[in-house]
Amino acid sequence: MLAGCATQLPLAVVAGANRVGVWLTNSPSPLYYDAGRIDRAVAELADAGFNTLYPNVWSRGTTFYRSKWAPMEPALAERSPDLDPICRITARAHQRGLQVIPWYEYGLMEPGDAKVVKQNPDWILKKQDGSPYYAMHGANLQTSPLKDLRVWLNPAHPGVRQRFIGLITEIVERCKVDGVQLDDHFAWPVDLGYDSYTSALYKQETGLEPPADYTNRAWMTWRRNKLTELLVELRQALQRSNGNSRISLSPGPFRFAYNKWLQDWEIWSVRRLVDELVIQNYAYSVRGFEQDLNQSAIERAQSWGIPINIGVLAGFGGRTTDANTLRKKVELSASRGFGVIYFYWEGLWGQYAGREGAEIRKSILNQVHRSLYPDPFPNSNNLRSIR
Fold this sequence. Notes:
The chain is α/β, with parallel strands linked by helices. The protein is 40% helix and 13% strand.
């Protein structure tokens, strides 16, 4: 099955083009709940030299639209159930010549108390001690409620695959977006896979029990291949759909992604299972940022011709990158031929803009983008029409 999917596919971006993008999300932001805010945000971003928006469409086990596969995000359902923020963002962005690539932040991860978890216990990956739970983003395994803990759905399970692909294809077809984005949560954490379903499948295919050492090379490779199979199935489903089949991937550094999350994004890139990379580089200092740009995996990916963009921290919570540091990081990225994607919208010139204020940051970023990325999508209309 895998060997049959090595077809060379058209890249998402023409040679020499770069993205200037930003991740949009509801957390913490009021953006998704107000049509006027959405319209103003898109206009401001277009005026500031942005060409791509990555709105979060799947987070904490819920969607930002009416889905047949998962519940609507509670605040949206309560405040603006008919707003349809992803389609509105897309429509306004296309009017201004911007592309929209919805971002599936949670990937295969779910809250511990999610309905799908309760209804499908055989879909959940487990550790050797039988526990499925992960404590992330400040949660505590002993004291946090289930809603704040995370579990991972099994990428090898047919039911999980059907639901995951369904979640993605329905928004692509519904809103006529320009692709989809997976990130570091499209993964198989290396210490998981000791649930009864995975153990039985591994024994059926190899004749062996899963080894106690979860870093065993053969055991890791087998699980990595299952994750790749799901990506292949997603690619095929998108190609069959009426939407855009391009896939963006936003992973962490390669060694960490490969060894801890079982993501082999080098192979995915070589085989054209993904059409662009947005490498997360959230080093705070300029020096650290530059060092992370020197990853050998990035250099190899660049030599293969796949478009590369760098994820840059603009501001989140109590951490805001000043405009001068942002400028230096963008200059470094552009000097290597990379585009930039900021995390996240409110950290640009919103509530996490820091002491500089919105207007100063907006002006500086506008100047930087216009000088470094003057015409990033010369054939953007043609790009959107590629299926």
